[in-house]
Specification:
PAS, single chain, five-stranded antiparallel beta sheet, Beta-Lactamase, flat, alpha+beta, PAS_4, Rev_trsase/Diguanyl_cyclase
């Protein structure tokens, strides 16, 4: 059967084709198809599917003249296999052959691909070689390019001799070396600015180039002799249309290295070893070759440990790429500087500055300095620029920036809550600014507890806080504000409950201005604060008195006795029930300002020192500030302020005299003095009533109002009304 017939049968999806040969035996053939292409046929056969018809083969023997016995005996040796088994074997053989052919094809394609890759690699290597040559040429150009550039115009005398030069131009690089201003130097004389130039080799080179037009190169010159500091320059001087141009490259670092290398080993080692900054040498792989003690001190590793390490060994993984870039630049250009982080031996992440130059093809010199404190200070300054130093919250500057950033449609609704700490001034005046600071910290903590990570909370004023809430509805905003107020009410400072007033508003559409929302929130807050102010301050005044009495039992007893005395004197003077009641309260709180006096002074068993007395004498003013801020006690504030004024004008704090002092304050002064002298102190005994009367009489007309002294002695003390 021909290949064409087999192919045609394959097109009809017939995989195995069985046919009977002329000799009566069965053959089978299968087309071999690889990747859709018919490439060959697989043949097998000369078998039976079932027991053959002997009659047919006897006729065959007779027809072709075969020995029938031998022919039939051979026929018995022909295998008899089922059709399905033949198919199974043929399919196995077909799959094996096709796999071998495919593997052969793949190998052939791989060889062709390898050949193409080889050709590409050759082309790539050629391109890389040309690139390296180009980079080398560029590097050389960069190395010889000058840092500074100056143009001078020659000045000539009447003989045509050059006597000086005028500055036409200088760039900032050479100006830094010359300590000049590029603008102010224009038109000025070289010798006027730098008289030391006159007659020098360099000045003669300038003249020669200006006269002949022939360029000159000075590989190295110590310009420090002219600018009064160590500076080495490489100069190229060229003629430029009647002027001369000087291209200057600063080679000071290179020169200093050369000087260090040519000095004696002993002097070099001593200088390097005792230098305050780290100095070390590494090879082209970054391995330490030599180092001084400062390098060991900066890194925390001993000199022996570092000599077994590479500069990369104490760089954290996340910063290794930055260090590699630094070192690759050094290998490429021969000079590199930077500020990098490293891991100190103690595990801390620190900063150092590095300046490196090439010594030769295999050695590189580093100068290092520990700049950790500087970087920390920079970080601290950056932190403080956006944070409040007291509470740690963000400040107004950060809040305003975030307000701009978050004021976009996708963040709607945006709610803003404004908070104000109630009674901060009273706390500061009563308990000191440390207590006031603690009050602010407690308020900040209470607000923060109710915030999520995307919320912005900031202290925007002395006692004001703001909370910016993206994706927060008005209802959610109220819940947050109430939660903060509830949380704050659980906090206390010096027995005073933290009280916060708040106001809020919500931006729900793009048509609303975020600044209007802030203004509305502030207005609502101030209304709420005014509503609560009176009760808050009265409550706080009561708390202050209780706190004072807790600080000093002596003050508590004294205030209660003075209260009784003031009430009794007012009654004896027939001042009316309203005044009598007022005097009772005034006597009780007359020393409220002592809340601002140290407890150690209030309870001191010995006489007060001068400084301690000055401290105590502040209490009338402190009391006045406390009471004048409350509606309930405001009319008593002036009495408290003046109760240590004297009739003769020598009292404090305002040296008021006579009837310029209110009657009520004059009564408090008498009651206060009487209780003081009749109370025992550790440093003196209490006076008897008779002795106290004598003391009051001596002070009448000087310290005390004579009329009040007369009433107090005659109608109160002598009648035993107290």
């Amino acid at each position: 059967m021909s290949d064409t017939v087999i192919a045609n049968r394959n097109e009809t999806n017939e995989k195995c084709h069985f046919y009977t040969c002329l000799n009566g035996l069965i053959d089978v053939q299968i087309p071999i198809v690889v990747r859709g292409e018919h490439i060959a046929n697989l043949y097998s056969g000369q078998l039976f599917f079932e027991k053959p018809d002997i009659t047919f083969f006897k006729r065959q023997a007779m027809l072709y003249g075969f020995n029938e016995t031998l022919y039939l005996a051979a026929l018995e040796k022909v295998p008899m296999v089922s059709k399905e088994k033949v198919k199974l074997v043929m399919n196995f053989l077909l799959n094996t052959i096709e796999l071998i052919i495919e593997m052969t094809s793949d190998k052939q394609e791989q060889m062709e691909l390898n050949e193409r890759i080889k050709e590409s690699e050759i082309a790539l290597l050629e391109n890389q070689y040309r690139l390296r040559k180009s980079e080398e040429r560029f590097r050389i150009v960069q190395e010889v390019s000058p840092d500074g550039f100056t143009i001078l115009h020659p000045l000539r005398d009447h003989h045509g001799e050059i006597t000086d030069f005028i500055f036409v131009y200088e760039n900032h690089a050479i100006a830094r070396i010359n300590h000049t201003d590029p603008q102010e130097i224009l038109g000025k004389s070289l010798l006027e600015l730098f008289p030391a130039h006159h007659g020098t080799m360099l000045f003669n080179v300038y003249k020669q180039v200006a006269s002949t037009g022939e360029s000159k190169v000075i590989d190295e010159i110590n310009a420090g002799e002219i600018v009064s500091e160590p500076v080495w320059l490489r100069l190229v001087v060229v003629s430029m249309g009647g002027d001369i141009a000087i291209l200057a490259q600063n080679v000071t670092k290179k020169k200093l290295v050369e000087i260090a290398l040519v000095e004696s080993e002993e002097k070099y080692s001593s200088y390097i070893e005792n230098a305050p900054d780290g100095v070390f040498v590494v090879d082209e792989k970054g391995n330490y070759l030599d180092l001084n003690q400062a390098t060991s001190r900066i890194t925390g590793y001993s000199q022996e440990e570092l000599l077994k390490m590479s500069i990369r060994d104490f760089i954290p993984d996340e910063l290794i790429e930055q260090t590699n870039c630094h070192f690759e630049k050094l290998l490429e250009t021969g000079i590199c500087s930077g500020e990098l982080q490293f891991v100190h031996k103690n595990g801390s992440l620190r900063w150092w500055s590095l300046d490196a130059v090439r010594l030769d093809e295999r050695r590189y010199l580093y100068f290092s300095r520990d700049i950790n404190d500087k970087k920390n200070a920079e970080s601290e300054m950056l932190y403080l620029s956006y944070h409040d130093h007291l509470t740690g919250l963000h400040n107004r500057r950060f809040f305003e920036q975030e307000l701009k950033r978050l004021d976009v449609t996708q963040n709607l609704p945006i709610s803003i809550i404004m908070f104000d700490v109630n009674g901060l001034k009273l706390v500061n005046d009563s308990f000191g600014h440390d207590a006031g600071d603690l009050l602010l910290k407690k308020a900040a903590e209470a607000i923060q507890k109710a915030c999520s990570k995307e919320d912005v909370v900031a202290r925007i004023g002395g006692d004001e806080f703001a909370l910016l809430l993206p994706h927060t509805s008005s209802e959610e905003c109220v819940q947050i504000a109430n939660r903060i107020k509830e949380c704050s009410s659980k906090e206390k400072v010096a027995n005073i409950e933290l009280s916060i007033s708040y106001g809020y508003d919500t931006k729900e559409t793009d048509k609303q201005s975020i600044h209007e929302i802030i203004a509305n929130a502030e207005n609502y807050m101030y209304r709420y604060k005014l509503f609560e102010r009176s009760s808050n301050r009265s409550k706080m005044t009561d708390l202050i008195m209780n706190t004072l009495f807790e600080k000093s039992s002596r003050e508590a007893a004294h205030s209660k006795r003075v209260s009784i005395l003031c009430e009794t004197i007012a009654s004896a003077m027939n001042l009316g029930q309203d005044v009598i009641n007022k005097m009772r309260i005034a006597g009780l709180i007359h020393d409220i300002g002592k809340i601002g006096v140290a407890e150690s002074i209030l309870n001191k068993p010995a006489a007060l020192t001068l400084d301690e007395r000055i401290e105590v004498e502040r209490h009338p003013e402190i009391g006045w500030r406390l009471l004048s801020s409350t509606n309930e006690y405001s009319e008593l504030a002036q009495l408290v302020l003046n109760h240590h004024e004297r009739w003769d004008g020598t009292g404090y704090p305002n040296k008021l005299k006579g009837e310029a002092i209110s009657l009520e304050a004059r009564i408090i002064a008498v009651a206060d003095a009487y209780d003081a002298v009749t109370s025992k102190r550790s440093y003196r005994e209490a006076l008897s009533k008779e002795e106290a009367i004598e003391e009051l009489q001596r002070g009448s007309g000087k310290q005390f109002d004579p009329a009040i002294i007369d009433v107090f002695i005659r109608l109160v003390l002598l009648e035993n009304r107290v």
